[in-house]
Design brief:
Elements: E1 14-18, H1 30-36, E2 40-46, H2 48-58, E3 68-72, H3 75-78, H4 84-98, E4 104-109, H5 111-115, H6 120-131, E5 136-141, H7 151-160, E6 171-175, H8 180-192, E7 198-201, E8 216-220, H9 226-234, E9 238-239, H10 247-261, H11 266-291, E10 295-298, H12 305-316, E11 319-325, H13 330-337, E12 345-350, H14 352-362, E13 366-369, H15 371-379, E14 384-386, H16 389-392, H17 401-419
Parallel strand pairs: 1-12, 2-3, 2-4, 4-5, 6-7, 6-8, 8-9, 10-11, 10-13, 11-12, 13-14
Protein name: Light-independent protochlorophyllide reductase subunit N
Catalytic activity: chlorophyllide a + oxidized 2[4Fe-4S]-[ferredoxin] + 2 ADP + 2 phosphate = protochlorophyllide a + reduced 2[4Fe-4S]-[ferredoxin] + 2 ATP + 2 H2O
Cofactor: [4Fe-4S] cluster
Length: about 450
């Protein structure tokens, strides 16, 4: 990072795009939510296309029995020739009879169910009355008509908030689905600070759902949870404003904001964080050698773009050319905007053709985009990174900081190897290594 670089984009102009967009729909969130919530089932009310999307995205083996499925809307349902509610009731009864381990059932709306205006909220209320107290039935929309794929998690968690138990006790609520090992790391850090009353939304099981009340403070783990934050505010909880825990600096700022909210002294904070901070800095430095001075553009995809741009610019020395995001939530992103380098172009929403024109004009060293745009850009000589990989890979907190930086360094190293033939020469005079590139090329 160049210490002379001026930072702060709170008042920077935002280019608002409204046009054709290319992202996965909110159904994709089921892929990580069903792994996190161990006694939940996600029943998509949609078409065979919805089913194929989930099967492909999740990579489910044929002999596995995942905790998601699709109630297929056939031609008769779409034409109004059948009572879709009666069919849905039968499918749910059949599912719960076969899977008695289910404690939470999510009816997930899709484009087809919304087009025919199937009222899944009322269906969830009706089915809860039938199957309570053994099963709680909720609903949310995963339709991709107006949303991006990470908003599926936001809609799911927001649907859970009204039913969370109430409490007057002081507690900390971590909001967002993380891999269990990363969640455990966060809990360990917070316990070291002396913050013991920690709960997580979503809980791993229905009986671990957190309690919420006027003395609840919550910290977001994911930057795309605007609706969930609004629902928690409505329950009287107070949000702890902070950058998101990506990289050493972001994790430290997130933890410090939580520590200050609970009155933790600086000496305790330093004792708990100094060692993991040093490990994170060393891990990031290894990838920063490849990233420093490189220019990067983010096309709007996951809503992770602003925190990632902050991490890459401040800790890895990259220069953000354009930071596009599907939706720029000024309230949640305030701490991130304050840390972004001045001069970076900010855009909200998507107009694919116009944004691709800017990428071709800017010629950044790395473009972060959706899978559907990556191959065409690569064919034009541009280096790309799939945005969706940043959602499926553990990237939060100190121990993952080096892995996060390496995700961006890898495509640049690959391009260097492919375009520079020298590292690929065989070590012909070295016995036993014919056919192998030297170590400098095997990165």
């Amino acid at each position: 990072m160049n210490d002379a670089t001026p930072f702060g984009c709170q008042s920077a102009p935002v280019l608002r795009e409204r046009g054709q967009h290319e992202v996965f729909c909110g159904l994709t969130g089921i892929v990580w939510l069903h792994r996190k919530m161990q006694d939940a089932f996600f029943l998509v009310v949609g078409s065979r296309t919805c089913a194929h999307l989930l099967q492909s995205a999740a990579g489910v083996m044929i002999f596995a029995e995942p905790r998601f499925g699709t109630a297929i809307l056939e031609e008769g349902d779409l034409a109004g020739l059948k009572d879709a509610n009666d069919e849905l009731d039968r499918e749910v009864a059949r599912l719960l009879t076969r899977r008695p381990d289910i404690r939470q059932l999510f009816l997930v709306g899709s484009c087809p169910s919304e087009v025919i205006k199937l009222d899944l909220a009322r269906a969830a209320e009706r089915l809860t009355q039938v199957h309570a107290p053994h099963v709680r039935v909720l609903n949310y929309s995963g339709s991709g008509i107006e949303t991006t794929f990470t908003q599926g998690e936001d809609a799911c968690l927001a649907a859970m908030v009204p039913g969370l138990p109430s409490t007057d006790a002081a507690n900390l609520l971590l909001v967002g689905a993380l891999p269990d090992v990363v969640e455990d790391q966060a809990r360990t850090l917070l316990a070291g600070l002396g913050i013991d009353h920690v709960q997580v939304l979503p809980g791993r099981r229905a009986d671990q759902d957190p309690a919420v009340g006027p003395n609840t403070r919550y910290a977001l783990l994911q930057p795309f949870l605007g609706d969930t934050a609004a629902a928690l505010d409505g329950r009287g909880a107070t949000r702890i404003a902070a950058p998101f825990p990506f990289g050493e600096e972001g994790t430290t700022a997130w933890l410090r904001a939580v520590a200050e909210a609970f009155g933790i002294d600086e000496a305790t904070f330093a004792r708990v964080t100094d060692a993991p901070r040093a490990r994170a800095r060393r891990a990031v430095a290894a990838a920063a050698e490849t990233l420093a001075g490189k220019r990067i553009t983010f096309l709007p995809d996951s809503q992770l773009e602003l925190p990632l741009a902050r991490f890459l610019s401040r800790e890895c020395g990259m220069e953000p050319v354009e930071i596009g995001t599907p939706y720029l939530h000024a309230g949640l992103m305030g701490p991130e905007l304050a840390l972004l380098p001045q001069g970076a172009r900010l855009s909200e929403g998507q107009d694919v053709d116009r944004q691709l024109d800017r990428v071709r004009a800017d010629r950044p060293d790395l473009t972060v985009c959706g899978m559907g745009l990556a191959n065409p850009l690569e064919s034009e000589g541009l280096t790309t990174k799939w945005a969706i990989e940043l959602v499926f890979t553990p990237v939060h907190f100190y121990e993952q900081a080096g892995d996060l930086a390496a995700l961006f360094a890898r495509p640049l190293r690959r391009k260097r190897i492919l375009t520079d033939p020298a590292p690929l020469l065989l070590a012909e005079n070295t016995p036993g290594v014919r056919g192998l590139a030297p170590a400098s090329a095997r990165e």
